[in-house]
Amino acid sequence: MRRHYAELWLLLLTSFAVFAVSSAFDMPEIGGRKLKSSGIADALLAQRSDGGRDAVSVAGSLSADTTAAADPSAEPAPCDSLPKTILFIGDSMLEGLGPRMAAYADHNGHTLYEVMWYSSTSEVWGRSDRLAGYIGRIKPDYIFICLGANELFVKDIAEKRTKYVDRILADIDTIPYLWIGPPNWRDDTGINDLIASQTERGCFFLSDGMHFERSKDGAHPTHESAAAWLDSVVRWMPRHAKHPILMETPSVKSSRAKRIFVHQPNEK
Amino acid sequence: MASLTDILHNVGQMLTYDPEAPMLFSSGIFWALFLVFMPIYGLLRQRKTQMVVFVVLFSFFFYYKSSGLFVLMLAGTSLTDWLLSRAIARPGQSRAVRRGCVALSLCLSLGILGYFKYANFFLWNFQAMTGGNFQPLDLVLPVGISFYTFQSVSYIVDVYKGRVAPTRTWLEYAFFLSFFPALVAGPIVRADYFLPQIDQNRHASREEIYTGLWLIMLGVIKKAVIADYIAQYNDLIFNSPGAYSGFETLMGIIGYTMQIYCDFSGYSDMAIGIALIMGFRLAQNFNFPYKSQNLTDFWRRWHISLSSWLRDYVYIPLGGNRKGTVRTYVNNFVTMVIGGLWHGAAWKFVFWGAMHGAGLAVHKASRPWLDRVPDNRLTRALWWLTTMVFVSLLWVFFRAASWDDSLEIIRSVGRDFSLTYFPAFASARMLWLVLMFVIIAAHAVPAAFWERVRQLFVRSPWAVKLLLFILTVQLVLELRTADVSPFIYFQF
Which residues of B carry out catalysis? Predict the structure, then answer.
């Protein structure tokens, strides 16, 4: 009978080894689609955080409570009070941020389009032409981005993802934008630093360090907490954003965007 | 490059309690630990004492990973229960002492459950009635407390009634109460069924081991592939009531109906599968509940371990059907309200349970009339549809954040319903639809088909099993979200 246990154990061990070893290398592509890694190697080999990372010190970045760290002599940019066509793109964090953003848009006369791509990363967006496609189609005059939550623990992230962040920013080109950083639930391996270093000053809102009430998955902020998160972004904008726009507090908690485009993780 | 210290630190972190990352059967950390557990268990299986000690230690560690130092409470509860059960069964013990022991045990078990799970609920309602300011107590609900408390209650009652002999040692009882496959989300294990298996001291057969693996894979697909994937859309609907069209909202309701089934039955499959690999049989917990043609049938197929527990330890002690028709309905209703409250300390669960109780009463009352209706495909389809609509609508109250949200979601279906949304919906959510179709198709095929597939898997060569297992895990990786969602039933 022990032989059967041994057989099963060998089966589980072999498959575990397959996933552990494969996670240390670049995953192969099948039919033009890159297989996802188990992340076992990343989890085991991640270097300990020295606790010294400070995105505030990174060029162009501002912390969640940035008022103290911001250059006191810098004058706030003038607020553009014209109605905007806003494109809000990102990962599943838009589930929580989207309804609140829609309430702001409604209240301030903006037109909001959302593109939520589940489990997406800067790499996923950077590799696809989807952002350029939406920009061409919707012709937004303001873009919000919320990406990074699915790449908090990527090893050697600067080496792997800088080109994709740059590609996203190249697609945005001269359109005013604001990148809302991921709501860290653990220390990241550098995604916040990376985005902060690639974006212009006042175009990145660092969410790391903020307190969030999390939903059951432990990662996504609850609906209420996501709304408060966006409220923080909006409060931060007038003094620190490079391109502040009219975002007066709406009387309703949530609303619906003019159009929501949803893409599943496996879509190309 | 990570140093050895980094690796050891990371392993240490993985083995330390993290309230945001309870150990799930579908997680990599459980898989890795199970790889360590299995060979040792295989060596000890026929040495009863060593095996029991080893499994209890592993179960306690498993619980520590999920609930931290509440593991001490679990150990304390099991020790108290065991001492009281020995006192109850002591020869010549007076009836008064025996009853006192039962009362004490129930007070302790249910008191702890009540404190952690219901204290804020009752305080909130009390303050609402008296008009005071309510400051909720800072309580954390220990994972799985509702499950192991019910096991503890049934054990004490069974010992008192003479249906079960108390275990000879505390370790055996701790083994029963903390058995890790069923510890945090059931199935609720009954002592009379489980305890004799400890003494059997037998290895699982090849058939059992690979049936166990089959069930684990099935459970992983249900939970980590289907339920977690379709949840992404369902959450959109339930998080923003009224923000979507009637058609989209209806899809969200149907989606949640399937999600909760896949989530919970997937967990049960994994638990039953792991136990089977260890040579222990746990009772079936789900039997294609959405095939039911009436509510009575539904409760014979849904969360069977809970419904049979409620029948044996609430409904029958209340009088069951022995005290007249009206009393039968009342007993049924009260049992279901308690069942609803078991799911969570909120009025929405009470309402959910009460409506099921009322539905069961209506079904029982209308049986004489229903029996006269011709039994054909049309009527069967009608009964099935009626049952599904009723069950699905009640899931809305179960899932939505508030009473207002529930009503808004249901209103949304009627307000803006048009099938013209379907082509756009299908194009945007093809995989969601495919997965929904898979669940429905799985219910539609005869049970014999699944038995045949299971046999094929068990008899397949080792390399085929390995390949299928790797494919299953890769499928999970491909479809998983940013983080793995905990099982819905963890919160109960």
Answer: 343
Q: Which of B426, B26, B491 is nearest to B228 (CA)?
A: B26
Encode pLDDT of A13-65 as tens digits: 999 999 888 888 877 877 777 788 777 777 776 655 444 333 333 323 333 33
- Measure the CA–CA gap between B86 and A162, rounded to whole angstroms: 67
- Are A100 and A137 found together in one domain? yes
With an 8 Å Cβ cutoff, are A256 and B32 in contact?
Answer: no
User: Residue A50 falls within a domain, yes or no?
Assistant: no
pLDDT digits (tens, 9 = 90+) for B47-69: 889 999 999 999 999 999 888 88
Are A183 and A72 contained in the same domain? yes
Residues A106, A134, single domain; the answer is yes
**ω into A176 cis (within 30 of 0):** no
**Which residue carries 């009025």 as its tokens?**
B347
**Domain extent for A60:** 56-263
Residues of A in contact with B435 (CB under 8 A): none
Q: Are residues A98 and A209 in the same domain?
A: yes
Question: A150 by DSSP, 3-state: which?
Answer: helix
Contacts of B263 in chain A (CB under 8 A): none
Among residues B477, B138, B439, the alpha carbon closest in space to that of B290 is found at B439
Residues A16 and A110 in one domain: no
B482 vs A8, A91, A216: nearest CB = A91
Residue B204 contacts residue B276 (beta carbons within 8 Å): yes
Q: How far apart are the first and last CA of chain B?
A: 43
How much is the pTM?
Answer: 0.72
Tell me the residues of chain A between 19 and 48 that have a Cβ less than 8 Å away from chain B. 19, 35-40, 43-48
Provide the pLDDT confidence category of residue A187 given band limits of 50, 70 and 90.
Answer: confident
Q: Give the Cα separation of A167 and A122 in Å (integer).
A: 9
- Under DSSP, the state recorded for B315 is I
- Is A227 found in the same domain as A122? yes
Do A136 and A241 fall into the same domain? Answer: yes
State the total domains in chain A.
Answer: 2
Please give the residue of chain A at the shortest CA–CA distance from B481: A119
